[in-house]
Fold this protein.
Amino acid sequence: MHSQILEELTTSDSLPSLPGVAARILELTQDPDVKLDDLAEMIQNDQALAAKILRTVNSSYYGLRQRCGSIQRALAMMGLNPVRSLVLGFSLVETVGSDRGEFDFVAYWKRGLLTAMGARAIAEAKKLRNADEAFLGGLLQDVGMIVMHRAIKEQYEELLARSDGAHASLLALEINELETHHAEVGAMLTERWKMPEELTLCVRYHERPTAAPQQVSDLVRCVALGNYIHDALTEDDPSTALRGLYSKAQAWMSMTPSEIDDILVLVGESAKDVAKFFSLDIGSYRSPDEIVSEAERQMMSFSRSGEHESYAERGFEAEHSIAPERDGLTGAIGAQGFLSALRAACPDACEGKTTLSVAQFTLDGADALVEQHGAEALDEAVIGSVAQLRAAFEPMGGIVCRLAPTIFGVVLPGGDRESVAHAADRFRKQLPASVARWIGGESPATHPLRVSAGVASIDDQSRGQITSVNALMSAAASAIKDARASGGDAVRTFAPSRAA
């Protein structure tokens, strides 16, 4: 770090300071034997802060089953960490400020809050212990920008103007011209505030999550994914952010695009309300439903153009030195490629080296759809179905195939039956509403298309009973027959018979 810049930053009279109650709460919560009554009393001494916390915990965002009337009860019902995080969150907003002035606080808090909410939602979805720290990490991540703006105002405003709102560009400018960056400066400040080490490390590594120490790796990655969520909701063209979000969520957290879409919707629908709790103006952002629809349109466009090819497909083609024939409408691998993929994966599964699952789907009501909306509507539904199947199964290593005009198969080497069945059911539930969008219908009820699906696996439960590709396909066919016999619009999993 350039010595002159460091001196200006660390000796600035305008360096932010935490309010006394927040500093005291931080100090008390370092004590493993701290009494909750002592914490409650301290918070309640600041009546305005206590009122904000109670209003927030009683909101739909936290989803408490019973209304909470006191800080003591909030601590008893929610635990120490959520309440502590709210204290620090409100204190951070008070410390940093939110006036527009010469600094763009709307953009600053929009990034902070959307990231915080996305990070918390991801941590909760993965049942991580530090969901509340993930929220705080998102709020704290860019506090170094405030320090730099206050300490070297004119110089930093020039960098902000040159970056034109692009966070990656700002980071590069900071490093090139100041020999430091806001993540390091923010970490320095949180150390001065005596924040827990995991939050300081989160601030320090939020721009380079893969370099974070192992003990905070998941926390930092939740915040980094929260940044992708912010970008997807705010950028004019969300395609790059969405691709990064889907791929990183799968690689880091084993999360499917469908799971991420749910979090996008949750954050987008809740952010305005949470911003009100914190008295923040975060401006506007795109509708999450619009973002999800944009993702679908991109996948459908790739299918039409034949540009899409997954890692699983490329690996399959490279390993077996073949280029399977592809369906002209969707770009998916055809029926012969489906059989080749099964034959390639079956021996290892039968020998117990791995598992192998297959899912088959049929679009019921296709003739009625054509009669009501025309042949082009069915083409749109087929293309969209392949796009959604890819989004659901390719992160799991699945190879999506079109076996017949309205029948699809997915080969999943290493896939377990429960996860595959769950993903299949999500696809089944999502498709009617998606088709309604694709064909211009007002609601899913305006078209007859529904999904029946069957799942079968070679695993510890079935190995010995399913010993060949034909047996696996027969098991999947039996499951899909059960789904249709039950009235359709269902997923059934082949259950091996118990040994005598």
User: Anything to note?
Assistant: The chain has a mean pLDDT of 86. Strands lie at 356-364, 399-404, 407-413, 450-458, 490-493. Residues 370 and 378 are 6 Å apart (CA to CA). DSSP finds 23 helices and five strands in the chain.
